[in-house]
Amino acid sequence: MAAQTSLKPTDPNIRLTEALCTSLRRRQIVGSLNVALATAALVQNIVRSARYSTIDELLSLIKAVGRKLIDANPKELASTNIIRRILRMIREEYRAAAAAHIVSGPPSAPETPYLGPTTPGLHAPSNHYLSQTSTAATNINEFQFFPSSGGGVGGNSGLTRQTSLSNFVAMRHSRAQLERSGSLVDMSLSASTSSLFSPVRGITPETPGVSTMSLNRVDSEEFMKHSARLKPILVQAIDEVVGELETTHEDVARGAKEHIHSSELILTMGHSKTVETFLKQAYKDRKFTVVVAESAPSYLGHSLATSLSSSGIPTLLIPDSSIHAILPRVTKVLLGAHAVLANGGLFALSGSLACALAAKTHSKPVVVTTGQFKFAPAWNLYHEYGAVDFQGPGAVIGMDGNGGGGGVEGVEVVDPYYDYIRPELVQLFVTNEGDHSPSYIYRLIKEAYDDEDVEL
Amino acid sequence: MCQAIQRYKRSSGCKCHVALVQNPSLSRHVHPIQQFNNSTETYPASTIVIASALHKYNLILQSLHRIARGTLYWPSDTPEITSPPAASSLTRLSDRNRPKVPAREMAPPPEKDKAGDGKAKAKSAKELKKEKRAAAVAARPEGAGGPDGVAGGGRPDLGPQGVSGSGSRPISNLNQAASSSNIPLASSNPNNAAGPSTSAPRRPPPTDSAGHPISNLAAQQNSFFSHLPHQESPDTAHALKTNKLHPIIVRLGVLMSSGQLRGANARTMGMMIAFREVIRDYECPDQAVLWKDLPIYLSPMIAWLETCRPKGVGGGNAIRWLKSEINRLGEQGDRSEAEQKDYLVEAIGLYLRDRIEFADQVIADHAKEKIKPGDTVVTYARSSVVERVLLEAWKDMREDDPEASFKVIIVDSRPLLEGRQLLEALTFAGLPCTYIILPLLSSILPQADLVLLGASALHSDGALYSRAGTAMVAMLAKEHRVPVVACVETYKFGEKVVLDGVATNELGDTKTLLELPNGKKFGKRGKDLPAALTPLHLVYDVTPPALITAVCTEIGFIPPSSVPTVLGKTSGVV
Question: Where is the composition biased (Basic and acidic residues) (chain B) (predicted)?
C-alpha cells in the first residue's frame, strides 16, 4: 500500500540529494552538526518543492532520501537522526492539523493548519476530546492516520499495545507535548490521546475492518485537499529543527558552570565545538585549566588548544602519550561525541576510548557533551570492535617520506576514525535538553523519534 | 574493513632498499647506542644490520673509543662558520676564552664574560643577549643541535688524546647533520658560551617571533608540573671550563640531553663505557689512594650527567655498582694503580656484558617462546630488548618453518615517533608490520595476541616506569584481554616506589610537539602562541602492576609482584 515513492527523475532535489550523498561519501562535510544541518536543508527543500499528493507520499519520499544517505555513509548517524526527527515533526504537524480538521468538520476548518503546530488544543472545543474518547473506545484503530506507513511490526490489538512499555513512554511523551502546546488535557483523556498519538505500528491488524479502512481513506483524501496549505507549516517545523540544531552548542553550554568547579584540571581531546563552547561558557564563571590532548592523526587538539587559549583559558597541550601520566592530576574528562547510541555508548574521535579508560582507571568522571541530534536509535552490543571506519593512512605515517609511506615499504597502516566507548565508561551526558545518565539515553531516543522510523 | 586497511607501497621502494643494503649503517637502522658511530662511515654490511650481541658490544666500544679520541674539537676552529652577526661575535667570545690558561679558566663567573664583552665595546650586553637569543632560536630548528654544541673549553691536560688532533678535525665525525648545514654548529656555541647563570634569559620568551617560541621554561612555569626536571641543552662550555669533567663525559651528556642517546640500555651502556674511558685516563695523585680519590674524581661527572638528563633507575644502579666496586678495591689493598684500573675497566665490561648484553639475550630466548606462528604481537615505541626479541623470534620461526610468520603491530606516538625506527628495522628483516599511532590502537587490538613492552625501570611495587604511552597500551590491552609482557633486565629494578606519573617524570622537548607532520606549523604561521597556551610533554608514565601480566627478565618470567623478591635476592649486586 505504501507507495515506495521516489523523486521524479526530473526533480532538482535528486541532484541535491546526490550532491549531499557524494559529499558524505567523500567526507567533505565534517562534523555531525554540519551533516545534520545539510540534511535538514535538503529535506526542507524536498518538502518545499517536491511533488506529493498525500502525507504518506511525502514521508516515504523523505525516507527514501534517508536510505540514500545511510548508503552514502552509514557512520554519519546524524543525517538519519535528523531525518527521523523531521519525520516525527511532520507527523505531529499533520496530526495536529488532522485533529483540528476532524473536529471542525471536513470542509470548514481551513484556517486550522495556518495556526501553526502548537495550537490545535487551544482552539479545539473542549468536548472534542471527550467525543474522541468515546470513538476511541469503540475502535481503537479508527483515528490512526497512517494506514500505509506501518510495516510488519507490532500488529497486535490496541489494548496490548497500550500496556506495553514503549507505548507507555510514547503516551507520556505525547501528553507532555500536548501540555507543552498549551492544551490542558484532562487526565481522563489519556486513553484517547494515547490512541491518537501513539506511534502507530500495526496499522493493518490481522482483520482490518472495512469501515475503518474506508474511513481512514476518506479522511486522508479529504484532508489532502488542504495539504498545500500544510506545506508552509511543515517547512516551518523543519525550520524549528534547524533552529534547534543551530543553538545546540549554546544550549549544551547553558549549565556549564554547574559541572565545573574552580581550579579544576579538565582533560579533553579533539576539537568538539560543543566542548569548546561548554568550556568557554564555564570560564565566564569559573577559573580552571584545560588539558588538550593533541589527538593524532587529525591534530584537532591543536586547534582546540589555540581557540581556548586565545580566549584566555589556561591551556596545556599534551601529546596523546602523556594522557595517562597526567591523569592523576586531572579532575574531569570532557569528551565530544560523534554519535550516541541507544545503549548509552557512543562513537567518538579515535583516542577517546583511551582517554575514557584512563579516566576510569584513575576514577575520574567522564562527561560527554552532545546535542540530542546525535542520539541514534541504534545499538552496538555485538559488534563493538568491528564497527570500525577507516580513513587513509597518510596522516599516520606521512606521505612525504622517501617516496611516500614514511620511507618504509610493505607496511600495513590503519587509521580508524572513531572509537566506540562503552556506556559504563561514561558518567554523564550533558545535552541541549538536560543532563542524562547513559542508562537513560534509550528513553530520550524513544521520545525523540517515532518507532516506525527506526528502520528508514 | 579489508578495503579500508591500506596496504602501503612506496613507489621508490626498491631504490631505497638497495641504498639500505649498501649503506647499512644508516643511523635509523641502528640502535641508538650505535648512533655514537659516525653515520658517514660505513661498516661492512655483515657487521651492522642486525648486530649480534657481541658485535653490537664491540661497536659500542669502538664508537666510544672514537669519541674519546677523535671527537673533541674546538668548534671555533671550524673555518666555515656561516656568520649571522650574533654567531660571529660570540665565536669571538669563545675564541677569546680559548687560549687562556686553564687555571684561570676555572669556573669563571659568567658576569665576567659579560664584563669582558662590555670592555670590548663591540656590542652592548643587551644587544649581545638579544643576539644570543636569536642564535639560540636559530639553533633550535635543527634537531641535532645538541652534539654540535660540545663547545670550546675542555681540559687540555685531561686525556692525552683529548685536544691534540682536534684542530685538524674541524667537524667531528659525530656531526652527522653538520654536513648539511653549519648553522647549528655556529649558533649553538653562543648558546653554550652564554654562561651558566644566563640560562633563564637565554630562553626566548613565549612571544618570540621565530616560530619556536615555547621553551621548556614555559612548561616549567606552569605550576602543575614545576617540580619535574626538564631537558635543557646543557652548558657544555661551562662544564668544560670547570676542568673537572672528562671530555667524553661532556659529550655523553650532550648526547643524552639531545636525545641522540635514548633508551635506558643505551644510556647506561654509554655512561658505563664513558666511565671506563675516564678510569683509563685517570691518574691517581701521588698522595692519594685510588679507591678514595676516584669516587671524588667521578662525582662531578656524575652530577653533570644528572643535569643533562636524570640517569634513571638503571643508570643509578650501575653507578651504585661502580662505586661499590671501587670501594672493594680498598678492601683488596696492595695492588698497583694500573692493576686497579685494569680491574675496574674489566669489571665494567663484565657488568655491561652480564647485566645488559647477556640479560637481553636470555630475555629474548625466554620471550620468543611466547610468540607462536600466526600471532600478532603489539609493541610500543622502541625498546632495544623488544626489538631483539622480535627479530630473534622471527629468525627462529623462519628457520623452523619458512612459511611460518607472525605479525607485529608497532604502536607509536608523537612527539618522539621512536616506533618509526623499529618499523624500519623490522621491515628490513622481513617481518610483516602494522604501524599505528597510539590513539588509534583500540580498533586493532582485538586482533592482538600479545603485547611486548620495554621499560626504563621496574619499581619495587611492580609498576613499570616506561616511555609515556606505555600505560595506555597496557590499559587498552587489558581492556581487550590481551596479555602484557614487560621485558626488563634486572639491573633496571628499582627499590623505590612511584605512585603515579606526576610525582616522578621528566619534561621533554616541546618543540616537536608544536610541529605538525607534513611541515605544518602550529597555529597560524607567523603568529605567536597565545599566552595562555602551554605545551607540555611528559616523557614517562607509570603502568600499574595490575596491567602487567608477566615480567620477562633474565631470571625468567616473574609476576610484577615478585620484584621485591628479586631485589632482595640480588641486593648485593644490584
Answer: 110-134
- B86 neighbors B132 (Cβ within 8 angstroms): yes
A199 and A276 housed in the same domain: no
Question: Which residue spans within A250-349 are E strands per DSSP?
Answer: 265-269, 289-293, 315-318, 332-336, 339-341, 346-349
Per-residue pLDDT for B42 more than 90? no
Beta-carbon count within 10 A of B351 CB: 22
**Neighbouring residues of B346: CB distance < 8 A, sequence distance ≥ 6:** none
Q: Of A240-254, B170-184, B235-249, which gets the smallest average pLDDT?
A: B170-184
Residue A332 lies in a domain: yes
**ipTM, interface predicted TM-score of the complex:** 0.72
Question: B369-522+530-569: which CATH architecture?
Answer: 3-Layer(aba) Sandwich (3.40)
pTM over 0.80: no
Tell me how many degrees the CA angle A13-A17-A22 measures, rounded to the nearest 5: 145
The total number of structural domains in chain A stands at 2
Residue linked to cell 631485589: B567
Same domain, A95 and A153: yes
Structural domain harbouring A415: 249-453
**Is A1 a domain residue?**
no
Do B160 and B68 form a contact (C-beta atoms < 8 A)? no
- In the stretch 519-548 of chain B, residues with CB closer than 8 A to chain A read 519-520, 522-523, 529-538, 540-542, 544
A309 touches chain B (CB under 8 A): yes
Residue A332 pLDDT > 80:
yes
Least confident stretch, A15-24, A226-235, A423-432, B113-122: B113-122
Contact B13 A328 (CB under 8 A): no
Query: Are A227 and A88 in the same domain?
Result: yes
Of the three residues A226, A246, A266, the one that is the final residue of a domain is A246
Same domain, A256 and A242: no
A387 touching chain B per CB within 8 A: no
Give the pLDDT confidence of B483-536 residue by residue, as tens digits: 999 999 999 998 888 888 788 888 877 777 777 766 666 555 445 677 788 888
CA distances from B256 to A348, B305, B311 (A): 39, 8, 9
Note whether A192 and A59 are same-domain residues: yes
Q: What are the tens digits of pLDDT across the range A170-188?
A: 555 555 555 555 444 344 4
Subunit contact A412:B8, Cβ cutoff 8 A? yes
Q: Where are the domains of chain B?
A: 64-259, 369-522+530-569
